[in-house]
Amino acid sequence: MKNTIIVIGFLMGVFLQAQIGISRDNVTNGSVSLQFGDNEDRGLLLPYVTDKTGIIENGTLIFDTSDYKVKYLKDTNNWVDLSVDATGTADLNIQANDRVEQPGAKVCISTTLGGTDTTKGILVLADNNKAMVLPKVASPHLSIIAPSAGMMVYDTTKKQLAVYNGTVWSFWKP
Length: 174
Known about the structure:
With 174 residues, the chain is mainly beta. It is built from two helices and 14 strands; from the N terminus they run H-E-E-E-E-E-E-E-E-E-E-E-H-E-E-E.
C-alpha cells in the first residue's frame, strides 16, 4: 500500500504544473515561476561545480570550486565572473567523496511543459515567459550572519544583485 501511494504521488508530481513560492504563501504575479520569501536572512545557494566542461545551457548559474567564484554562462564557453574578488573560499566537505552523484537528478518548474523539458540542470525553470525572484535581503553583508559560498540574493537596500564567494560579497547593478 505504501509503495502504491509513493508511485501515485510520483506520477502526479511528473504532471504537476505550478508556480512555486518558498517561505511565502503565494507568488506575486503570473510572471513568476519561483519566488522566495521577503525580508529573510537567507539566500539561494548555487550548486558547487568542480568541472564545468559539460555545461552548455546559457544562463546557467554555478559556484565554480576551481577558483571559488560565482559564475553564469553567457554564451557557450563564455563564463562571466560575478564574484570579482579572487580570494573566495569554501568548505567542500558538503560534497565529500562518500556522497553519490545522481547525474539524472532534476527538478523542472513549468506551467506548460510538464515532464517533457529536456534542458540539462539540477533546477530548471522552463517557462519562457516567467522568471525567478531571488530571496530579498536588506544589506545581506550585515543581515546574513554565516553566509555559504555560492550564495545569491537581491539586496533591497542597495537594489542590487549580491553574490558571496566564501570570503566577500560582490554587488551587481545594471
